[in-house]
## 1
Amino acid sequence: MNELSFLLAPRSIAIVGASEDFSKVNGRPLKYLLAKHYAGAIYPVNPKYQRIGALHCYPTVAAIPEAPDLAIVALPAPLVAQAIADLGRRRTKSVIVFSSGFAEIGEQGRRLEQEVISVASSAGIRLCGPNCLGLINAFDGVMATFGQFAEGETPPGPVGFVTQSGAFGTAIAALARRRGIGLGYFINTGNEGDVDFVAAMRAVLADPRITVGAGYVEGLKDGPGLIALAEEALAAGKPLVITKVGKTISGARAALSHTGSLAGADSVFEGAIRSAGIIRARNEEHMLDIVEALAGCPLPQGRGVGIVTQSGGAGVLMADRAEELALAVPVLSDATQRKLREAIPAFGVAANPVDVTGQFVAEPRLLHDAIKATLYDPEVHVGIVWLQLMDAYVDTLVGIFESLKAECAKPFVVSWVAAPEAGLGALRRRGIPVLRGAEPAIDAVAALANYAEDQRFWQADGKARKALRETEAKRHVAAPASGVVSGPAAMKWLNDNDIVTIPTRYVRSAEEATVAAAELGFPVALKIESQDIPHKTEVDGVRLHITDIAAVRQAYAELARNAQIHCPEARLGGVALQRMAGAGAELVIGLKRDPVFGLVVMVGLGGIHVEVYKDVVFRLAPVTQAQAGRMLDELRGRAVLNDTRNRTAVDRSALERLISNVSALGAASGNRLRELDLNPVVADATGAIAVDWLLVMD
Amino acid sequence: MNELSFLLAPRSIAIVGASEDFSKVNGRPLKYLLAKHYAGAIYPVNPKYQRIGALHCYPTVAAIPEAPDLAIVALPAPLVAQAIADLGRRRTKSVIVFSSGFAEIGEQGRRLEQEVISVASSAGIRLCGPNCLGLINAFDGVMATFGQFAEGETPPGPVGFVTQSGAFGTAIAALARRRGIGLGYFINTGNEGDVDFVAAMRAVLADPRITVGAGYVEGLKDGPGLIALAEEALAAGKPLVITKVGKTISGARAALSHTGSLAGADSVFEGAIRSAGIIRARNEEHMLDIVEALAGCPLPQGRGVGIVTQSGGAGVLMADRAEELALAVPVLSDATQRKLREAIPAFGVAANPVDVTGQFVAEPRLLHDAIKATLYDPEVHVGIVWLQLMDAYVDTLVGIFESLKAECAKPFVVSWVAAPEAGLGALRRRGIPVLRGAEPAIDAVAALANYAEDQRFWQADGKARKALRETEAKRHVAAPASGVVSGPAAMKWLNDNDIVTIPTRYVRSAEEATVAAAELGFPVALKIESQDIPHKTEVDGVRLHITDIAAVRQAYAELARNAQIHCPEARLGGVALQRMAGAGAELVIGLKRDPVFGLVVMVGLGGIHVEVYKDVVFRLAPVTQAQAGRMLDELRGRAVLNDTRNRTAVDRSALERLISNVSALGAASGNRLRELDLNPVVADATGAIAVDWLLVMD
């Protein structure tokens, strides 16, 4: 039982505005409920009819003989609120509103929708919709929908599917059916007046018969809610696969910092879900490939893929793609190679990818033995078998895979190009995932490996996460004034909170500058200091590589003059003097407040190049050091942190500590912090240090 | 008629080693030839039989009554050379060798193969194979194959397909058949003893019935040959779509320069084919999506996509993907929007993407009018219509698309998710491309738009290409000595050939250094000069931002000492003094010799970051300035060349001239030049200038 049980597994269903015309929106639910043998009570409500088919039809909601668990409302929009009020009086537990004409049509509809929501809420009714296709609980024959998907077979299965879009969701469900993927639930949340994507998915995953959650998302309202749900799902070992469209959701917002301006373009969503093990699918086919693999396979214990093909080219294509997705295609052990050489013809290839050649057609045992040998290799964690056509050998092949599934504990998938329908069906009925090509197979396997890794990481990092939360609760951060914070005040705040900055002196005269430079040691940098000049280079307000006292004097004078010329109105805070940073790797570390997910921490590479390559990774704040390490691993240009031609590797743990500290500071600042940019942070073998900073408070 | 006519369209076929068992490799060609009503003469050769079916069987090749245009040889490998010798005496024009046991099995097979090749060559016989499935010319019923693909229907069509892999090629051909894509030719080139991929594709494209070439490539031998073929295809208006596996073909070669080390990983192939308008497909489905679109659509005259959907989410998914592929999703004109508002329901969306909602089910005309209005918009060059399911409305929908195809000159494709089989078939029979999802549709349309653009560009750039070739022929480049060329000699050579370098003085004492610095003007850079130290920073051999005479002296001393310590054996050429370059955009421009394609020119972005992000683009040398411009456009970080916060846009035409000059210099150097790196090249609003260089000659 969960809070949406009455909605998802009602023992009785009223249909308000039911029609005897089973082709109509308000007629179809009854048709489907009868066809799929819904076992509960059905109460059609419509004053026009005495009966619909064999069922008694009630003139009003008040006339229904019991309080229904669920009511379907299929009335014109202006009549919906009244119907829900009536249902409330009848102590109805939940309602699905099919009707459109609400928020999706503009201001007037939005007002109607608010009314519906408030009526339902005050009556204690949980509301699905409005403007939705409704839902199917296939286990219990609950066909509370008018969607096209209900027209065909809807056998229950371990996959729970929740979709914000009716049309696209229906298409995905139909594709799943074609693959023989059983959807235990199909739920379209529509306008999400009450029950939103997260709530529906949580209820679905609470059902022990569901082992995989699949979702289609167009606009997410509750980012932290999704992440909380994902963590519950991780704990329960139920993978969650999501396709989300709308990659530019928050991209348009103006922002002062790099962190702010880079936070659009989907990357916040990407980073947030990655930390919680949500699997992101590019599109509908990719989603179903992953779902099919998850539903049919145990999780791999590592990233090693063993590839068995009958075509060298397919093997190369898969190995290339595996490399792109950071899967390993390990060299097989001598023992494995020996076993393979015994099994396959001399002109085959006994290395990974294994090429068994077309010879297995004459000698099926060969394929079986080759796959088995490959799967048993200690470096192989998951197998992929590539086939094409083979119309005449379906039974043999299905037999081979069936016995392999029984014999081997390791997961494998079949990639079968131009597969005969009979072969596809037979494998899928046996719970063996079969993908339609080489690339989809690798993509699906990569999703499995990533998820398994996320799960392991999440478990291993549990203690650190807990410790971080406890520390956070104890922190008392005295935040500085609002708006752009002055350089010295920001520096003090950072230093007070365990964030190291480069030695810096703020000075107000050329004389002071020369003294400070001598103290800091040459070479030094001079930077104009003003809260009104967040981007100093724009006013030619930076002088680098200054090597002597005379040059300090001259640089001071130039900066003061430039500020005067370019920003005569700016409040000047003098000039910042810094010891020049060494030649380390340059990063940007920042914080920003995302409208959907709240406070997020960003890591990017490359100083000025961060804007060009947008090589940035986000996470919800705070992150543990280990999570920070994973962020660094996700940077495309991460190689710059390793040993390079001109530099030894940077101190990764100092960098991870810095990222974690920044994220913890942000989280502890509550809603006060708007944006923080540490740009650049310079990291080398001795540590990681912020060289410039921009802090904006609310 | 072309040079492979006897192979591709033989008027008579001998089958050497023919079997009466039609299930065997040597029996199947006869079975297929008879089944597909091959109209020419067939001569089975086998001393075991008098007759096979209704055909006379000849005991020896000598007994065949005429010189056959084509002979199929299906004998054990050791017997093949003798059979070809016999066929040669019989004046046979061409031979296909099915037999395996040649180069693919190692050294012994390689020797056998060489023998076969030389026998064929001296007899003037064109050879396809060995180790191949043979070929099909579906127009003329030439079923010279034992491949599985021949088992089903093989209706001829406008697509010519050439594959280096038998197994993978068969799978692709079978998938094409399922889509109703007619393959006029299916050719498997196998070991390519004589007829290689390029020769086969050239012969196929010479057939006027073929309008699209499709190829599957595993290992390319003749890069320039492929490019020459692609240019012929461009001139003939026949698009060429290729899937190539093996992304790491030349990646392992050691190289001194960045250009050399970055040339692996498939990027040379990518760059080379892009300049010649070859369309690269990621995998088999992507290839067929593009082929289907090309075969069914005229080419779009621009990059504007008009999207019509029944689901907002599908529209967003397509718009996102379009943006990723640099397609435009233009704002529709007021007139178009007016027309749309008349056509679609109030709760639809009359902007691009257009959402017609599910209402068209009740009112099919609405869909027709909405698509038509969108296609007629002046900014729309190609349309995509997204549908799902609609099993009950197949006839209506097919009718709509059929009349749209008749009425509108602009191309459009249908993206139909979970489409009913009847709908797919009906559209495809009418030559209307239909893709299985939103993303594949956008991907196919992008390929069309790219190809059309390549074609227009290639035509527009024809004169410049011609001029470049003429200049090249006239150039006499006196190349410097071999090995790593000294800094001053390389600089002179570059300057003599229109490549600008930063003002540089080579000096041999601290005293000379101070004089040179004063002449150049501060700040200056000092760099150790030695042919034996190609990477100066590795020996701490560079000093930048030197601002006075004393520091010059000190830097000189340090560099001399560092060279002594790190490279005591190195031949020192003193120190190079340069005026410090301004703060422009940093690029790498280089040349290298690729084993498959010959001399290629590279452009990369980002100074040291070039290695991290591998943001580089290659082309065959030489390139025109306009081609150089396209290279810059293909850089992921190209935004760095535009106006940015701290800098005005760089002088693009100076940069393009520099790239073109470098490429022309390389091309004119013949085989002498091994590697050239200009790294960095600094570009700003005033020009583009090489700041450091590494030249290696053979």
## 2
Amino acid sequence: MPETQMPTARTRVVREPHRGVYSREEAYRILDEGFICHVGFAVDGQPFVIPTSYGRKDADLYIHGSAASRMLRQMKDGIAVCITVTLLDGLVLARSVFNHSMNYRSVVILGKATLVDEPEEKLAALRLLSEHILPGRWDDSRQPNERELKQTSVLRVPIEEFSAKVRIGPPIDDEEDLSFPTWAGVIPLEMKAGAPIDDEINPLREAPEYAKNYSRSLR
Amino acid sequence: MPETQMPTARTRVVREPHRGVYSREEAYRILDEGFICHVGFAVDGQPFVIPTSYGRKDADLYIHGSAASRMLRQMKDGIAVCITVTLLDGLVLARSVFNHSMNYRSVVILGKATLVDEPEEKLAALRLLSEHILPGRWDDSRQPNERELKQTSVLRVPIEEFSAKVRIGPPIDDEEDLSFPTWAGVIPLEMKAGAPIDDEINPLREAPEYAKNYSRSLR
């Protein structure tokens, strides 16, 4: 697999091309820090965009869901999908309205989803999804039984045609705006976890470390 | 405008229908707390999903961007779009792998985008977008000039065909799993702002209150 993916006409970053990133390593870093993607698919020309969780193994992205969902029913037919992961890092406040921006890292993957129906690969993918969101949790949980596995669909999307886009750093103002009398800078944003809330029904254990110290950015 | 929007075949929540919400008021609450949407549009059957900021006025959603962007070029032609806003509230850890879930609130809007080119409405929409993200900032910034306004496109999407989906609360385990010896509960998640970072170039002012105490959920 090449270290850098040459963009196609469909994945080349058109707007602000200097923010386009085609390094597989950087795309993986973004995918591994996030765990919610937005999946796009079109039915009769009407696009739908649905949030869902995902996991990654090497150059494959896995998503899952109920076999009954609209998204998975459509995607199983091998239609084209777009999977986008966005991490928001901050609000960028410039002197001019026009140069206001956001710091973010995003990945866009174009491809086709394939149904994973080989039982071992399916179970491995579900474990991957779970461990991607919360390492250690799978082994602490009651394992899926056959009925539950049947109700769950897993889809694989190859990470082949993709691009990332990254903005970091301070505001970039035009030279003539630098003396405009206002504050300029960045408000950092981060997804943070609060203290775990015990289920009130039959609490048998204290919250484990992975629930008490949950963080994405420290991983 | 009706208080409750009857879902169409395209917006009815198929999976977990009890989580479907068709109240305009609830959808507005979600849209007003978020400020990043994922916009889906299809070109020759290939969907694209692009993150961008937005603002809302009554039953209209506004997005903006460079006139040069792929998204806005396509959407100006009046193609069908899907706009999805997702707020992530927590990880839901059940006893069984199968009943793990997330707490979230999401809105899906289907519609067509229209270019806003009347200068006054365009300026008002840009102000709306700015105030939606950071109230008070517009008036503290250097206002857009004619050249900048020309480089910016604003699109309006009516909030007509929509649905919301909401999951709140503790895990819901099967009765027979309640004695499984593990911790169960919720890890709350929230987007939090850190201390503002002053631009190092020509700092003329201290960070204003709206930068020091930025919060979405307290608004």
